[in-house]
Design brief:
Blueprint lengths: L16 E5 L6 H8 L5 E3 H9 L8 H17 L4 E4 L5 H13 L4 E6 L3 H9 L8 H16 L2 H4 L2 E7 L2 H10 L7
Parallel strand pairs: 1-3, 1-4, 2-3, 4-5
Length: 183
Protein backbone atom coordinates (compact mmCIF):
# COMPACT_ATOMS: atom_id res chain seq x y z
CA UNK A 1 0.00 0.00 0.00
CA UNK A 2 1.37 3.41 -0.97
CA UNK A 3 2.05 5.95 1.74
CA UNK A 4 -0.69 8.52 2.20
CA UNK A 5 0.52 11.97 1.15
CA UNK A 6 0.94 14.50 3.94
CA UNK A 7 -1.90 17.05 3.53
CA UNK A 8 0.31 19.77 4.97
CA UNK A 9 3.12 19.51 2.45
CA UNK A 10 2.89 22.80 0.66
CA UNK A 11 3.55 22.23 -3.03
CA UNK A 12 2.80 25.44 -4.87
CA UNK A 13 2.73 26.14 -8.58
CA UNK A 14 5.01 28.89 -9.86
CA UNK A 15 3.66 31.51 -10.10
CA UNK A 16 0.63 31.58 -7.82
CA UNK A 17 -1.39 33.82 -5.57
CA UNK A 18 -1.52 32.60 -1.96
CA UNK A 19 -4.32 34.18 0.04
CA UNK A 20 -4.04 33.78 3.80
CA UNK A 21 -7.49 33.56 5.39
CA UNK A 22 -8.09 33.75 9.13
CA UNK A 23 -9.06 35.91 12.06
CA UNK A 24 -6.67 38.36 13.69
CA UNK A 25 -4.27 36.45 15.90
CA UNK A 26 -4.56 33.15 14.04
CA UNK A 27 -0.93 33.24 12.91
CA UNK A 28 -1.12 34.43 9.30
CA UNK A 29 1.80 36.87 9.46
CA UNK A 30 3.98 34.42 11.35
CA UNK A 31 3.23 31.70 8.81
CA UNK A 32 3.88 34.03 5.87
CA UNK A 33 7.23 35.08 7.29
CA UNK A 34 8.20 31.45 7.90
CA UNK A 35 7.26 30.17 4.45
CA UNK A 36 7.85 33.00 1.99
CA UNK A 37 10.43 35.61 1.09
CA UNK A 38 9.61 39.10 2.39
CA UNK A 39 9.32 40.55 -1.12
CA UNK A 40 6.56 38.04 -1.95
CA UNK A 41 4.27 39.21 0.88
CA UNK A 42 1.73 42.03 0.56
CA UNK A 43 0.45 42.84 4.05
CA UNK A 44 -2.56 45.03 4.81
CA UNK A 45 -1.00 45.93 8.17
CA UNK A 46 2.23 47.00 6.49
CA UNK A 47 0.32 49.24 4.06
CA UNK A 48 -1.63 50.78 6.96
CA UNK A 49 1.73 51.50 8.55
CA UNK A 50 3.04 53.12 5.38
CA UNK A 51 -0.06 55.29 5.01
CA UNK A 52 -0.48 56.36 8.64
CA UNK A 53 2.57 55.27 10.61
CA UNK A 54 0.36 52.85 12.58
CA UNK A 55 -0.26 49.31 11.32
CA UNK A 56 -3.39 49.02 13.45
CA UNK A 57 -5.04 52.23 12.19
CA UNK A 58 -8.27 50.91 10.66
CA UNK A 59 -9.22 54.43 9.51
CA UNK A 60 -6.78 54.14 6.60
CA UNK A 61 -7.82 50.64 5.51
CA UNK A 62 -9.48 51.84 2.30
CA UNK A 63 -6.29 53.56 1.13
CA UNK A 64 -4.09 50.69 2.34
CA UNK A 65 -6.12 48.11 0.43
CA UNK A 66 -6.16 50.31 -2.66
CA UNK A 67 -2.37 50.25 -2.63
CA UNK A 68 -2.26 46.52 -1.89
CA UNK A 69 -4.62 45.79 -4.80
CA UNK A 70 -2.58 48.00 -7.15
CA UNK A 71 0.63 46.17 -6.18
CA UNK A 72 -1.10 42.80 -6.54
CA UNK A 73 -2.27 43.73 -10.02
CA UNK A 74 1.32 44.57 -11.02
CA UNK A 75 2.65 41.32 -9.56
CA UNK A 76 -0.03 39.19 -11.25
CA UNK A 77 0.65 40.89 -14.61
CA UNK A 78 4.34 40.03 -14.14
CA UNK A 79 3.43 36.44 -13.07
CA UNK A 80 5.16 36.77 -9.70
CA UNK A 81 4.18 34.54 -6.80
CA UNK A 82 2.46 36.72 -4.23
CA UNK A 83 1.14 36.15 -0.71
CA UNK A 84 -1.69 38.29 0.68
CA UNK A 85 -1.44 38.72 4.44
CA UNK A 86 -4.81 40.06 5.60
CA UNK A 87 -7.82 38.51 7.35
CA UNK A 88 -9.67 37.86 4.06
CA UNK A 89 -12.63 36.39 5.96
CA UNK A 90 -15.28 37.91 3.67
CA UNK A 91 -16.17 36.87 0.16
CA UNK A 92 -15.87 40.49 -0.96
CA UNK A 93 -12.24 40.67 0.20
CA UNK A 94 -11.29 37.33 -1.33
CA UNK A 95 -12.97 37.96 -4.70
CA UNK A 96 -11.08 41.25 -5.05
CA UNK A 97 -7.92 39.13 -4.97
CA UNK A 98 -8.94 36.07 -7.01
CA UNK A 99 -10.31 38.24 -9.82
CA UNK A 100 -6.86 39.76 -10.31
CA UNK A 101 -5.22 36.34 -10.40
CA UNK A 102 -7.84 34.99 -12.83
CA UNK A 103 -7.35 37.95 -15.15
CA UNK A 104 -3.68 37.01 -15.54
CA UNK A 105 -4.07 33.22 -15.55
CA UNK A 106 -2.39 32.79 -12.17
CA UNK A 107 -3.78 30.07 -9.88
CA UNK A 108 -5.09 31.23 -6.50
CA UNK A 109 -4.55 29.10 -3.41
CA UNK A 110 -6.28 29.74 -0.08
CA UNK A 111 -4.35 28.93 3.09
CA UNK A 112 -7.13 28.97 5.68
CA UNK A 113 -6.24 29.17 9.37
CA UNK A 114 -9.42 27.84 10.97
CA UNK A 115 -8.07 27.31 14.47
CA UNK A 116 -10.28 26.85 17.54
CA UNK A 117 -11.76 30.15 18.75
CA UNK A 118 -10.13 29.90 22.18
CA UNK A 119 -6.69 29.50 20.56
CA UNK A 120 -7.23 32.51 18.28
CA UNK A 121 -8.48 34.71 21.14
CA UNK A 122 -5.53 33.68 23.34
CA UNK A 123 -3.00 34.35 20.57
CA UNK A 124 -4.63 37.70 19.79
CA UNK A 125 -4.50 38.72 23.48
CA UNK A 126 -0.79 37.81 23.60
CA UNK A 127 0.17 39.85 20.52
CA UNK A 128 2.72 42.53 21.30
CA UNK A 129 1.25 45.97 20.64
CA UNK A 130 -1.58 45.13 18.24
CA UNK A 131 -4.41 43.47 20.10
CA UNK A 132 -7.62 43.44 18.06
CA UNK A 133 -10.81 43.86 20.12
CA UNK A 134 -12.28 40.47 21.06
CA UNK A 135 -15.64 41.34 19.49
CA UNK A 136 -13.96 42.07 16.13
CA UNK A 137 -12.07 38.76 16.31
CA UNK A 138 -15.33 36.96 17.09
CA UNK A 139 -16.98 38.56 14.05
CA UNK A 140 -14.04 37.46 11.88
CA UNK A 141 -14.33 33.91 13.21
CA UNK A 142 -18.07 33.89 12.45
CA UNK A 143 -17.48 35.16 8.90
CA UNK A 144 -14.86 32.48 8.31
CA UNK A 145 -17.09 29.73 9.72
CA UNK A 146 -19.95 30.88 7.47
CA UNK A 147 -17.69 30.85 4.38
CA UNK A 148 -16.44 27.35 5.16
CA UNK A 149 -19.93 26.05 5.95
CA UNK A 150 -21.18 27.37 2.60
CA UNK A 151 -18.07 26.12 0.77
CA UNK A 152 -17.59 29.59 -0.72
CA UNK A 153 -13.86 29.52 -1.42
CA UNK A 154 -13.88 27.16 -4.40
CA UNK A 155 -16.78 29.12 -5.94
CA UNK A 156 -14.71 32.29 -5.55
CA UNK A 157 -11.99 30.96 -7.83
CA UNK A 158 -9.49 29.24 -5.56
CA UNK A 159 -7.88 26.27 -7.31
CA UNK A 160 -6.80 24.76 -3.98
CA UNK A 161 -7.97 25.33 -0.42
CA UNK A 162 -5.69 24.14 2.38
CA UNK A 163 -7.45 24.10 5.76
CA UNK A 164 -5.34 24.26 8.89
CA UNK A 165 -7.46 23.53 11.96
CA UNK A 166 -4.98 22.46 14.63
CA UNK A 167 -2.26 24.65 16.16
CA UNK A 168 0.22 21.77 15.93
CA UNK A 169 -0.41 21.47 12.18
CA UNK A 170 0.11 25.22 11.76
CA UNK A 171 3.33 25.11 13.76
CA UNK A 172 4.63 22.12 11.80
CA UNK A 173 3.73 23.42 8.35
CA UNK A 174 7.03 25.19 7.80
CA UNK A 175 8.98 22.23 9.11
CA UNK A 176 7.38 19.66 6.79
CA UNK A 177 6.85 21.61 3.61
CA UNK A 178 10.29 21.42 2.14
CA UNK A 179 11.48 24.20 -0.12
CA UNK A 180 9.04 27.03 -0.60
CA UNK A 181 9.06 29.22 -3.70
CA UNK A 182 11.43 32.15 -3.20
CA UNK A 183 13.35 30.62 -0.29
Amino acid sequence: MAARPDPFVLALPEPCLVVLVGAAGSGKSTLAARLFAPDQILSSDAYRGIVSGDESNQNVSKVAFSILHRELEKRMAAHETTVIDATNVTSYARRALTRRAERHGVPAIALVLDLPAEVVHARNAARPGRIVPAQAVQQQLASLARALRRDELVAEGFTRVLLIREPADLDALGDRSGPIIGR
